[in-house]
């Protein structure tokens, strides 16, 4: 697990969004031939392995230019504000240059800026699609870069090597090794939109006014780490800045707070997503939930201000939770707790919830039990026939290979052709029957040849132990 944040910066239309999509294996960033399409920052994960156990966060920023090549006018440029926030809050910057249009004064200006603020950065030349682009690479060396990385995001050339080089650069950063200090402490990130009551909940959990509380949305600007001992276990509560909808982020300071909240999710072992009961689930809440789920973090959904929710009846809470699960399909298993920070109603349950989620996410199940569940689910619901190959899926063996999130490898005859609905069925059954009912799990399918490789490695290890 590498973690860390990489900000992609550069002039308009140099291919930042296309590269972002390649690194994150997504199509989240809008790609267009017109310059300046990307305005707000986009966030995604660049995974280094199929198991999603190792990787880093990537931020796509908007392109910018100025006429006098000075950074002072950027103070009034909203796109630059977003880019500057991403640069300063990231661990590493990826500066993208255009291999077709060649060197530009803006490239020199941005490179000089990164050097002035002493920000670690890597320089890559995009759109190197053939020999003619390779021949003009020499002009970029005037930036004083010894190692220029050549890529073609449009044709997916060199992107894999770039991803691994970025990972190596992140691993070499001394500050990144300090991100998760006190290894035995369980970190709980309290996230949500402004004024949902995150700081009030934290104050109730620790029994003192540690976090600033105000009716003004967005009062908390920085993430606050608060140590706590519960049931003889060390915890760190991370109260994050409130995350507003992107259209409302006008201050540079608040732009920085957004990334600090996202970084808190990266650092956390458990995430408590705080919702405002009266306002209900919003699109921004759903984005946060998806980010935590994609990162494999166990999430507890905390519905605050339940004391002022109107017209409650006996089934209101149950129906409210069901509605949340329908909206948050990626977190349909996440527990929902209804609290009131104002009256301290059920806030005492949150530490118990976090403890339960952390324990479940770190649990390991014996291989024999995993295979017992596998056999039972196949007997109850046989996989459908794969028409293209005129045969059914055969499962040979399954074992848990990782925790946080629990990851199960299943060996079978056609690893890449199992129907998505059957994968969901298997995921739900493993989660239910193996004690992972409230946390995310990952299934990885491997071909039969990997079983032979596994047996050979086990035999070699046993032989070595006897020497």
Folded structure, characterized:
By secondary structure, the chain is α/β, with parallel strands linked by helices. 34% of the residues lie in helices and 20% in strands. A 6-stranded mixed sheet has the order 2-3-1-4-5-6, sandwiched between helices. A 6-stranded mixed sheet has the order 8-9-7-10-11-12, sandwiched between helices. The chain is globular and about 70 Å long.
Summarize the structure.
This protein is an alpha/beta fold. Helix content is 34%, strand content 20%. Helix 8 links the parallel strand 10 and strand 11.
Q: Which keywords apply here?
A:
467 residues, alpha/beta, six-stranded mixed beta sheet, 34% helix, globular
Describe the protein's topology.
Elements lengths: L4 E5 L6 H9 L17 E6 L7 E6 L17 H12 L2 E7 L6 H12 L4 E6 L4 H4 L14 E2 L8 H13 L14 E7 L5 H9 L17 E7 L2 E7 L12 H16 L2 E7 L6 H12 L4 E6 L11 H12 L8 E3 L10 H13 L5 H14 L4 E2 L4 E2 L2 E8 L4 E6 L7 H14 L8 E6 L1 H18 L1
Parallel strand pairs: 1-3, 1-4, 4-5, 5-6, 7-9, 7-10, 10-11, 11-12, 16-17
Antiparallel strand pairs: 2-3, 8-9, 13-14, 15-16
Helix pairs in contact: 2-7, 11-12
> How much of the residues is beta strand, in percent?
15-25%
Q: How many helical stretches?
A: 13
Ranges where pLDDT stays below 50 over 5 or more residues in a row are: 30-39, 67-75, 178-182, 211-222, 242-257, 456-467
Pattern of helices and strands: EHEEHEHEHEHEHEEHEHEHEHHEEEEHEH
User: How would a crystallographer describe the biggest sheet?
Assistant: 6 strands, mixed
Number of strands: 17
Q: Roughly what is the average pLDDT, rounded to an integer?
A: 80
Shape: globular
How would you classify the helix and strand content by structural class? alpha/beta
Which bin fits the share of residues in helices?
25-40%
How far do the termini sit from each other? Answer: 33 Å
Main sheet: which strands, in order across? 2-3-1-4-5-6
Rounded radius of gyration (Å): 24 Å
């Amino acid at each position: 697990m590498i973690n860390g944040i990489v900000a992609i910066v550069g002039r308009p239309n140099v291919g930042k969004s296309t590269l972002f999509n390649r690194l994150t294996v997504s199509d989240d960033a809008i790609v267009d031939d017109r310059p300046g399409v990307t305005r707000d920052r986009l966030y995604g994960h660049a995974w280094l392995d199929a198991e999603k156990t190792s990787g880093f966060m990537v931020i796509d920023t908007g392109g910018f230019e100025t006429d006098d090549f000075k950074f002072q006018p950027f103070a009034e440029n909203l796109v630059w504000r977003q880019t500057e926030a991403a640069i300063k809050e990231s661990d590493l910057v990826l500066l993208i240059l255009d291999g077709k249009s060649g060197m530009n004064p803006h490239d020199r200006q941005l490179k000089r800026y990164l050097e002035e603020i002493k920000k670690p950065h890597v320089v890559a030349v995009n759109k190197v699609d053939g020999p003619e682009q390779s021949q003009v690479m020499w002009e970029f060396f005037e930036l004083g870069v010894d190692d220029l990385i050549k890529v073609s995001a449009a044709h997916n050339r060199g992107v894999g090597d770039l991803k691994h080089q970025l990972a190596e650069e992140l691993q070499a950063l001394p500050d990144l090794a300090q991100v998760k200090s006190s290894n035995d402490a369980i970190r709980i990130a309290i996230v949500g939109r402004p004024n949902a009551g995150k700081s009030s909940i934290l104050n109730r959990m620790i029994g003192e006014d540690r976090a600033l509380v105000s009716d003004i949305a967005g009062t908390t600007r920085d993430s606050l780490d608060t140590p706590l001992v519960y049931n003889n276990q060390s915890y760190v509560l991370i109260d994050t800045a409130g995350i507003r909808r992107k259209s409302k982020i006008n201050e540079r300071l608040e732009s920085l707070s957004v990334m600090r909240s996202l970084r808190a999710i990266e650092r956390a072992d458990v995430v408590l997503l705080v919702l405002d009961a009266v306002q209900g689930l919003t699109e921004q809440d759903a984005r946060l939930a998806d980010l935590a789920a994609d990162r494999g973090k166990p999430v507890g959904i905390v519905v605050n201000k339940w004391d002022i929710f109107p017209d409650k009846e006996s089934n209101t809470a149950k129906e409210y939770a069901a509605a949340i699960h329908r909206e948050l399909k990626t977190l349909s298993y996440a527990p929902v707790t209804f609290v009131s920070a104002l009256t301290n109603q059920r806030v005492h349950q949150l530490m118990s919830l976090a403890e339960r989620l952390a324990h479940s996410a770190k649990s390991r199940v014996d291989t024999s039990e995993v295979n017992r569940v596998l056999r039972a689910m196949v007997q109850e619901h046989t996989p459908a026939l794969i028409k293209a190959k005129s045969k059914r899926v055969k499962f040979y063996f399954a074992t848990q290979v990782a925790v946080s999130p629990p990851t199960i490898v299943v060996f079978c005859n056609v690893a890449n052709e199992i129907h998505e609905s059957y994968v969901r069925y298997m995921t739900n059954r493993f989660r239910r029957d193996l004690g992972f009912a409230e946390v995310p799990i990952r299934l990885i399918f491997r071909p039969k040849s990997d079983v032979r490789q596994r047996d050979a490695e086990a035999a070699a290890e046993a032989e070595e132990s006897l020497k």
